[in-house]
Amino acid sequence: MDYKKASLKLHQKHGGKMEIKSKVPLKTKNDLSVGYTPGVAAVCRLIHAKPETVYTHTIKKNTIAVVTDGSAVLGLGNIGPEAALPVMEGKAILFKEFGGVDAFPICLKTQDPDEIVQAVKWLEPFIGGVNLEDIAAPKCFVVEERLKKEMRVPVFHDDQHGTAIVVLAALLNALRVVKKNIGAVKIVINGAGAAALSVVRLLIMAGARSRQIILVDSKGIIYAGRDALNPYKQKIAKITNPQKIRGGLAEALVGADIFIGLSVADVLTRAMVKTMADQPIVFAMANPDPEIAYAKAKKTKIAIFGTGRSDYPNQINNVLAFPGIFRGALDTRATQITEEMKLAAAYAIAGLVAKRELKPTCIIPAATDKMVARAVAAAVKKAYNNKKA
Hints:
- This protein is an alpha/beta fold.
- The chain has helices at 3-14, 29-35, 40-49, 54-57, 80-99, 113-121, 139-150, 158-178, 194-205, 231-237, 249-252, 270-274, 294-297, 322-332, 339-351, 371-388, and strands at 63-68, 102-107, 129-132, 155-157, 187-190, 213-217, 220-221, 258-261, 281-284, 304-307.
- Helix 13 (294-297) links the parallel strand 9 and strand 10 (304-307).
- The protein starts with a helix and ends with a helix.
- Residues 160-384 form the Malic enzyme NAD-binding domain.
């Protein structure tokens, strides 16, 4: 199938992918009087007197905003808010289909961090959470940090944390297959944007040794003291690559057990793979084209190969994380999504692949498996309640 042509046809036929439907009938005068005026005034008065009832009498209890400025869309870059809308619509229908969460796509016509923060804060009366999406680094860090401090609803930047959760889930199972320990492996991450920095933090929480992690950006290996590092890269440089290995991706990969690609297509060569440790794990997650083509990867010693694509084995896709994360957060009325909740989500996803099913081409549940969101939501709620207790 030509997915590009099919997608263009689908979007034009339906005028987008979303609509709003009423939960209640509006067929009679009584229906109108109860659902709207005069009856609705009683609900307004109740909420005014008891603000917490906005969660029990309105859509707030099950509604999030999917917010972008269009500055870092998929593999398309800074294409602006209008061009980002199809992706945000897609995100919204995934929330509904897999998590039962009502999500509104909010595409802001500004790329100023202060204006983004203010705009999102103005939405707080009607939303129960915020999913930030496709906002360029390092601006995305600033926006998320401020919103988490200044809002009383959970804020989650999916490009960072959703990616980290599914990468960890896939890696936990991949390591079981090749019989390696997360605390003993050398990990190379190509790309040092929002997703990569979050992946590092979650891997360390799960037991990876920070001294065994090397990040590579467009200018080469990251190490403490290197030029052209923004404050976020400087922070991560202090805890990774203490040996101060220098060079590019080729130098970083010598002896590496794991390659995680969060960058661009075709940067990983067969020659580089040869220098990696035995039974290497490669997650080539650049979209739409991975860091090494599937056909080339099959001709190397790669033991386990994963991508973000649905037409290859081991699709490492954020849809395994974000619907369940927000389902659990909304159900508990959490005001934050904590690191413990993210870690619990990753273990829940990994745990859904039974030992008898675990193999090099099956390390993570299918993106369409609706059991995943339920399991993630349950794990998130448990982690939240444990910390609350």
